[in-house]
Specification:
The structure holds 2 protein chains of 2 kinds. Chain A is mainly alpha-helical. Chain A contains 13 helices and no strands. In chain A, helix 6 packs across helix 7 and helix 6 packs across helix 9. The model of chain B has no long low-confidence stretch (mean pLDDT about 90). The chains are: A mainly alpha, B mainly alpha.
Chain lengths: ~300, ~35
């Protein structure tokens, strides 16, 4: 299996997942069902995470088919640019969906302003994702193209960001530094929460540390944005890099692990001086291992892989 | 402007924006918690 296979496998998730997650969310709003709202937010967050490898594997698929007869380069660039914009909206939607889950845990309700933001972002993301999917389908299916002639390339967002990253020396240096700021913010909070669950600083309740989670989420956001900018800059140094794929896989698993500590009752009930249940300890230990693995694979990009 | 200065200013700027965003989320949620 190569990246083209992986892209074909994953590229349905953002669009179909948006229909399921977004549809559930709209139904939940109409039915005023809290359980449905929470379920739809978890689906939207999951789709936001899956959208990252979907986009990344697209560059590998591009490598595999760009020389084939009938494949339009400008159509590929337009698809890539639209998918890049869609990815941006999707990650923003994922961020607000996570915030809603966090707010629900603290307030036992989701503020109306955040529900409105999620609804608007759902509609925007879905419309861009549908456009990206349609353009992606047209690359290999000439029979569904509106015009068989060469497509005029639209605004190539990914290429524009990529050119910024490579043409201005300070862009890469700034993003690299911010990537470490985000990492420190993320791991500083996540390790504190995990260590408490494992039995260190037992005098502090879980709820007190739960309050810090938005700082970790913002750190993660900074790293997703800067990480995607690195990728847009020089995609070829990542798409054939084993270390990069291990890193991505562990980011996805750690992201799902974060839902446990954000939303579920088991860790939330952990008061001062109380011992966490065994399953919570397993979740905390696995989170620490996964984030350590993310750091290791990131550092090993040039050594185990072929970056830089 | 030297590259090092541009990088420092941009990093500080983004870090401040992120910090302010996290502070606002924290304070507004804490205020609502107290109301409840």
């Amino acid at each position: 299996m190569d990246l083209a296979h992986l892209h074909l496998l994953l590229n349905h998730f953002p669009t179909i997942g948006m229909i399921i997650g977004g549809g559930l969310f709209v139904v939940a709003l109409i039915a005023k069902s809290t359980d449905l709202k929470l379920a739809s937010l978890v689906v939207l967050l999951g789709i936001a995470l899956i959208a990252i490898p979907t986009y990344v594997s697209g560059n590998g698929a591009q490598d595999a088919i760009k020389a084939l007869p009938g494949v339009s380069k400008s159509l590929i660039e337009t698809h890539e640019g639209t998918a890049f914009v869609g990815l941006g909206f999707m990650e923003l939607l994922g961020a607000f969906a996570w915030l809603a889950l966090w707010q629900y845990r603290r307030l036992a309700r989701i503020p109306n302003w955040n529900l409105a933001v999620i609804l608007v972002l759902t509609l925007l993301t879905f419309s861009v994702m549908v456009r990206a999917s349609n353009l992606g389908g047209e690359i290999r299916h000439q029979e569904i193209r509106a015009s068989p002639a060469e497509v005029t390339p639209e605004f190539p967002a990914a290429r524009t960001v990529g050119a910024l990253m490579t043409n201005y020396q300070w862009m890469w240096a700034t993003c690299e530094t911010l990537h470490f700021v985000g990492l420190s913010l993320l791991l500083g909070v996540v390790f504190l929460v995990d260590l408490r669950v494992l039995g260190v600083i037992k005098g502090v309740s879980f709820a007190s540390l739960h309050r810090l989670l938005p700082w970790a989420a913002l750190g993660f956001g900074v790293n997703v944005v800067t990480g995607m900018m690195f990728f847009a800059g020089i995609p070829n140094q990542y798409i054939h890099n084993t270390s990069f794929y291990w890193k991505l896989a562990m980011v996805l698993l750690a992201g799902l692990n974060a839902v446990y500590f954000t939303l579920l009752d088991q860790p939330w009930r952990l008061g001062p001086k109380e011992d966490a249940p065994f399953t919570a300890k397993i979740a905390a230990a696995s989170a620490m291992l996964l984030w350590a693995g993310v750091m290791y694979c990131g550092s090993m990009l040039p050594f185990l892989g072929n970056a830089f | 402007m030297p590259i090092a200065l541009i990088v420092v200013l941009l990093v500080l700027g983004v870090t401040v924006v992120v910090g302010v965003a996290a502070y606002i989320v924290d304070r507004s949620t804490a205020r609502q918690e107290r109301k409840q």
